[in-house]
Amino acid sequence: MDCIFCKIISGEIPTKILKETSDSISFLDAFPLSKGHVLVIPKKHHQKIQDMNEKENSDLFSLVHTMISKVDSITGSTLLAVHNGKDAGQEVPHVHVHLVPRSKDDSAGAIHSMFDDSFKLSDSEIDELYTKLKI
Ligand code: 5GP
Ligand code: ZN
Question: What residue's CA is closest to ligand 1, atom 13?
Answer without folding.
Answer: 29
